[in-house]
Amino acid sequence: MSSHPTxxxxxxxxxxxxxxxFPGEVFAKTAEFDLYIRQLLPxxxxxxxxxxxxxxxxxxxxxxxxxxxxxxxxxxxQRYRDVQVVGVDYSPRMIEFAxxxxxxxxxxxxxxxxxxxxxxxxxxxLSVGGGFDACVSSLAIHHLTDEMKVKLFTxxxxxxxxxGVFWNADPVVPESPIxxxxxxxxxxxxxxxxxxxxxxxxxKTGKSIPYGYSQPDQxxxxxxxxxxxxxxGFESVAxxxxxxxxxxxxGEKTEGKG
Length: 258
Description:
The chain is 35% helix and 21% strand. The chain starts with 19 loop residues before the first strand and ends in a 6-residue tail after the last strand. It has a seven-stranded mixed sheet with strand order 4-3-2-5-6-9-8, sandwiched between helices. By secondary structure, it is α/β, with parallel strands linked by helices. It is built from nine helices and nine strands.
């Protein structure tokens, strides 16, 4: 597994680099994220719905890591009306945007936003509480090195109550050149169906700079992710949703259940 620096990567302020964004923000303008991510990634809403559907019906406390604009938090709260969701993101722009979105949707009393790097949380340098019944994440963890992924998965499992689950949605590395070409064509076809092109959508992206523990894409295969989850101690791992190069994968903390 790859190594990581002892301390998080330090970078210049955003204003020092035109259109600079943190890894995971993708697009130069935060307000455009929800629109363009749906053009860039096939079946984005279906992917998030898959995560929400796989949360235990009795869940009361949920952690959303790399919450971004709050789309996944909204889908969770729409399905589970009595839960409390804690959203964590290192981008002040994303936290501000998500807070406004959750308030507009009528969920402000059920949602708490924390500005912080979940890499710090994995290294026990940030507190977000514990006793979660579920942890969810989308399009964020793939920015960590393999070593940090395992650390984060281990921390997530520690934070879960017995019977708790973790579900993560991320792009995965194609297992062969043929699949790589196939995945590319699928994304191009999807963009055309949305009335645009992959090239056009990519012109909306900003310049991603390493920040904290996150770097530009650190993708691995789905099989590697499942191995990391097992290394982190998850007794049961699964892939409830997959669409070509995108997957929802995770596991359950069964130890001590019942």
